[in-house]
């Protein structure tokens, strides 16, 4: 890879870098952190992410290295924006594609006007429960661990803010949307509740985080693109040292 690519710069990972990454589909957020941390070896640096994305979601993941990891909580607290697709007329236990459809509903009588109107119930300050299949910890254990074992889990209500919930396409059973929300909002829960508001069911089939605070997905690196660049710079430095 050419180091003259203007997209890249001379990083100082130890001092601290904020990296914008487009998280791949089916990767966990920790997978991304691990891939970048391994590419930096033999440097032993702190590497962390500011805001988990579910494995089936893609989009903007903020990665911090070195001294900048101390600011992760600040970045994580910022407003987020997502685009995605829901499937109306069915539900899944996980509220997304992780689990199989368990219930189906008739959607033949649902109108576009009803769909647009239903978004009004989910803007402003709202309350929601996290999905049973989520990374939230209860008594020190992740909810999804209990859910996958078939154990009952106690879900605790949380309050979140949704400044914008916009329907961008209706092609039933698919509905595309754009959501702007506060830290801690579960889009899967919001979509599940949206289906209930129509006396029906809905689950999330696609989710992309497009913004976090003032940081945009359009400015993000692909994981392997960045990792290959880091490795090329290390190899370049090694060769120069041997001259």
Automatic annotation (TrEMBL):
One GO term (biological process): tRNA pseudouridine synthesis
Keyword check for tRNA processing: yes
UniProt keyword Kinase present: no
Keywords per UniProt: Isomerase, tRNA processing
SUPFAM superfamilies reported for this sequence: Pseudouridine synthase
Active-site residues, as the UniProt record annotates them: 54
Residue ranges occupied by any Pseudouridine synthase II N-terminal domain in the UniProt entry: 46-187
Listed EC numbers: 5.4.99.25
Database matches in Pfam families: TruB_N
NCBIfam families on file: TruB
Homology family: Belongs to the pseudouridine synthase TruB family. Type 1 subfamily.
Protein name per Swiss-Prot or TrEMBL: tRNA pseudouridine synthase B
Top-level taxonomy: Bacteria, Pseudomonadati, Bacteroidota, Sphingobacteriia, Sphingobacteriales
């Amino acid at each position: 890879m050419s180091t003259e690519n203007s997209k890249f710069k001379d990083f100082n990972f130890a001092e601290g870098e904020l990296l914008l990454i487009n998280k791949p589909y089916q990767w966990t957020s920790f997978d991304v952190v691990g891939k970048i941390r391994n590419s930096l070896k033999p440097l032993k640096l702190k590497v962390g992410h500011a805001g988990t994305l579910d494995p089936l979601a893609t989009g903007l993941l903020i990665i911090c290295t070195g001294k900048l990891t101390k600011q992760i909580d600040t970045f994580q607290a910022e407003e987020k924006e997502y685009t995605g697709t829901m499937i109306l007329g069915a539900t899944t236990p996980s509220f997304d594609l992780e689990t199989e459809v368990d219930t189906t509903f008739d959607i033949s009588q649902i109108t576009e006007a009803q769909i647009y109107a239903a978004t009004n119930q989910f803007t402003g300050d709202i309350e929601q429960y996290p999905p049973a299949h989520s990374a939230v910890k209860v008594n020190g254990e992740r909810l999804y661990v209990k859910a996958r074992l078939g154990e009952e889990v106690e879900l605790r209500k949380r309050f979140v803010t949704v400044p914008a919930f916009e329907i961008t396409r209706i092609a039933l059973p698919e509905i595309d949307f754009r959501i702007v929300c506060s830290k801690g909002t579960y889009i899967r829960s919001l979509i599940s509740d949206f289906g209930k508001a129509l006396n029906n069911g809905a689950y999330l089939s696609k989710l992309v985080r497009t913004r976090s605070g003032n940081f945009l997905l359009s400015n993000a690196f692909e994981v392997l693109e960045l990792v290959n660049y880091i490795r090329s710079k290390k190899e370049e430095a090694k060769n120069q040292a041997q001259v």
